[in-house]
Amino acid sequence: MSIFKDMENMGHEEVAFFRDRRTGLRAIIAIHDTTLGPALGGCRMWPYRSEEEALYDVLRLSRGMTYKNSVMGLNLGGGKAVIIGDPRKDKSEELLRAFGRFVESLGGRYYTAEDVGISAEDMAIVNQETRFVAGLPQTSGDPSPATAFGVYQGMKACAQEAYGSPSLRGKKVALQGAGHVGYNLARLLKEEGAELYVTDIYEDRVEKVVQDFGAQAVEPDRIYDVPADIFAPCALGAVLNDETIPRLKVRIVAGAANNQLKEERHGDELKERGIIYAPDFVINGGGVTNVADEFLPGGYNRERAYARIAKIFDKVAQILAMAREKNISTARAANLVAEERIRRLAGRKDFYLPGER
Predict the structure, then answer these.
(1) pLDDT value of residue 341
(2) What's the alpha-carbon Rg for the chain, to the nearest Å?
(3) Which helix (H) or strand (E) holds 216?
(4) Which residues contact 341 (CB under 8 A, 6 or more apart)?
(5) Which of 191, 230, 268, 306 is least surrounded by Cβ atoms within 10 Å, i.e. has the fewest?
(6) Mean pLDDT over all residues of the chain?
(7) Cβ pair 284, 194 in contact under 8 A
């Protein structure tokens, strides 16, 4: 793997590798683009099969954060962190504090927050070593409910496009991933009267959604074969690929996972198959919008944050309309929207320096 070539191809500014001898921490922080402001993006802890897989993930995730923050209208750039390890076995106070010290060493070019495998309580530990943390329990807290609410709004916009009504009552939804976001999304869908099918690699999560919301459990690899109205990927990325897309029996793909398309051409394939795809970095922007509200005058205001998140319905609808008018995939339309805002504001500076406004 040529790191500098990959950075050039994807447009990254900085990639930092960290190792702490005492705790065994192995972490990578990728800063993609800070034209709009300091990079903000969560920290993911996952048992990656290799260092190369972790690097590939953090590069893709950080790029997605740039586009997400741009589309959401935030004055923030895109970054991401990954910690190599099993969050159920390897996480410790010492390891999280070591990660916090590494974040602090970047001087404010990158703000961290929760992601897969990391909680608001974990971020409170990180905060003991760095100022550059968002999504703390005493501020905006766990962003998962906000992310789920945004996905719910985007899903309704897709239903409006597909069925002429935003109602999800009676719609069959195949939910892949029953973590914090998936669970909260299941709750919203159940409240509206949707019929749920759920899977996750952790059986206890599936059981909770089945018990609480009457969902039907599905084996992980069979979720792509469920005849449904909506497929909602809410786990890890690259799940829409050459193998899975031909198996889908849905009209809509709308979920919370980042980087759902393995390659950009898979968005084109969904279009060709008549499947409406809600671009992931648009529909899952509720969490970062909620966290970013902390940076506004007066600090975090939940009512203000959720009012902005509700507008994801309109953002998704606008991108669906643009894709229809230009006869391009919704993924390509979303990229155009994000890139245009960055281009318009690029004259201010090339990249963010700590202390700038």
Answers:
(1) 94
(2) 19
(3) strand 216-217
(4) 36, 70, 71, 73
(5) 191
(6) 95
(7) no
Which has more confidence, 351 or 37? 37
Selected catalytic residue, list 80, 156, 172, 315: 80
* Dist CA 308 CA 300 (whole Å): 13
Q: Tell which residue, 262, 188, 260, 271, has the closest CA to residue 231.
A: 260
For this structure, is 349 an active site residue? Answer: no
Q: Sign of torsion, CA 154 157 162 168?
A: positive
**Given CA atoms 167, 170, 172, 175 in this order, what sign does their dihedral have?**
positive
User: What CATH code would you report for 3-66+78-126?
Assistant: 3.40.50.10860
Task: Answer yes or no: is pLDDT of 294 > 70.
Answer: yes
Q: Which residue from 326, 241, 330 is spatially nearest to 282, judged by alpha carbons?
A: 330
pTM of the entire predicted model? 0.90
Q: Where does 144-341 sit in CATH, by number? A: 3.40.50.720
Burial (CB < 10 A; 0-12, 13-18, 19+), residue 301, is: middle
- Residue 3: name the closest of 22, 20, 21, 16 by CA: 16
Q: Write out the H or E segment, with its range, that includes residue 200.
A: none
Q: How many C-beta neighbours within 10 Å does residue 349 have?
A: 13
Other beta carbons within 10 angstroms of residue 14's beta carbon come to: 17
Q: Which residues in the chain are classed under CATH 3.40.50.10860? A: 3-66+78-126
Q: Which part of the chain has CATH 3.40.50.720?
A: 144-341
Residue 355 DSSP SS3 = coil
Largest CA distance in the chain: 58
Q: How far apart are CA 228 and CA 127, in angstroms?
A: 43
* Contact present, 315 and 282 (Cβ < 8 Å): yes
